[in-house]
């Protein structure tokens, strides 16, 4: 057999391996395997599509992290000082921190919005993947998909709104992971109609969703602890410095501490965004597996009739 012909066959086989079909009945292991394969094989394309929005998220998260790293230890020290001296806490002395609390709330909302927009650039590629079986190479490093970003933002915000009462009983919130992915992937379907149809399906596959979600979050927590370690060290350094004030020591923080804290949080947050990608990819394949299972059930009903 001709050597060049063998190379062509090998290349075709490699391309087929990369094109993992979305709507296919999979166990939780199959979902995790498919998600991991897509994460590794298409990471550069995901990065090219999302780096700009991910950087915006990292900057906002760094502002939030720096603010909490500087002000939260200070607030803790003020409260401890009052408890030590007066055996109580005076609200009047804490009023200045209400401004900081408001700033933190604004930054948290901004970080959620920025993260949703960054996820939208990933979903734009996944939408093409669901139709063609392949992740396209983005045409530019500077032009994210604004249409899918807007739909993802709407899906994330409405999902959070629905989940607020459901978090009282956390197991009932898990199917919303499926509903959110279904809504984003099945444009232009409305969110509430997707919720009506999809929540029951998600609840019917609660066990497999839980296993995929739990193992994915476990990976993110373990990897995130390593990635965010420098930021956590700086938070503890600020805390210890403020605790020294409690016993009468000077603050003793170098002038470069604030910019160093901010830069560290930017780098850690940027890396952390890409550590969290498996929650999107595994959710994407979990959605495909549930939809394929539903189609299989419907086909069986038709065959019986």
**So how many helices?**
11
For the record, give the distance between the C-alpha atoms at the N and C termini, rounded to a whole number: 51 Å
Q: What is the ordering of alpha helices and beta strands?
A: HHHHHHHHHHH
Q: Which strand-content bin applies to the residues?
A: under 5%
Largest sheet: none
Number of distinct beta strands: 0
Radius of gyration equals 24 Å
Net shape: elongated
Please, could you describe this protein's structure?
With 305 residues, the chain is an all-alpha fold. Helix content is 80%, strand content 0%. The chain is built from 11 helices and no strands. The longest helix is centred in the N-terminal third of the chain and has 44 residues, at 43-86.
Write the layout of secondary structure elements.
Elements: H1 3-18, H2 28-41, H3 43-86, H4 96-132, H5 146-166, H6 175-185, H7 191-204, H8 206-227, H9 229-246, H10 257-275, H11 277-304
Features:
305 residues, mainly alpha, 0% strand
Question: Can you describe this structure in just a few lines?
Answer:
The protein is an all-alpha fold. 80% of the residues lie in helices and 0% in strands. The chain has eleven helices and no strands.
């Amino acid at each position: 057999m001709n050597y060049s012909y063998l190379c062509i066959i090998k290349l075709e086989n490699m391309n087929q391996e990369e094109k993992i079909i979305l709507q296919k009945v999979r166990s939780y292991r199959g979902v995790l395997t498919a998600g991991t394969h897509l994460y590794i094989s298409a990471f550069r394309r995901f990065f090219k599509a999302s780096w700009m929005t991910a950087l915006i998220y990292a900057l906002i998260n760094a502002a939030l992290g720096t603010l909490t790293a500087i002000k939260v230890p200070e607030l803790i020290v003020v409260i401890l000082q009052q408890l030590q001296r007066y055996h109580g806490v005076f609200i009047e002395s804490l009023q200045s921190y209400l401004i900081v609390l408001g700033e933190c709330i604004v930054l948290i909302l901004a970080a959620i919005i920025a993260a949703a927009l960054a996820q939208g650039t990933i979903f734009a590629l996944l939408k093409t993947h669901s139709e063609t079986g392949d992740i396209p190479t983005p045409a530019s490093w500077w032009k994210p998909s604004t249409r899918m970003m807007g739909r993802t933002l709407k899906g994330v915000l409405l999902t959070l709104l629905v989940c607020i009462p459901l978090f009282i009983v956390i197991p009932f919130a898990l199917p919303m992971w499926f509903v959110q992915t279904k809504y984003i992937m099945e444009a232009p379907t409305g969110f509430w109609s997707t919720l009506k149809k999809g929540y029951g399906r998600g609840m019917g596959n609660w066990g497999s969703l839980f296993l995929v979600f739990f193992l994915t979050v476990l990976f993110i927590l373990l990897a995130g602890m390593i990635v965010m370690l420098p930021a956590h060290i700086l938070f503890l350094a600020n805390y210890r410095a403020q605790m020294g004030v409690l016993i009468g020591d000077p603050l003793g923080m170098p002038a470069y501490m604030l910019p160093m804290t901010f830069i560290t949080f930017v780098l850690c947050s940027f890396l952390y965004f890409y550590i969290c990608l498996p929650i999107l990819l595994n959710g994407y394949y979990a959605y495909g597996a549930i939809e394929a299972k539903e189609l299989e059930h419907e086909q069986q009903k038709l065959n019986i009739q």
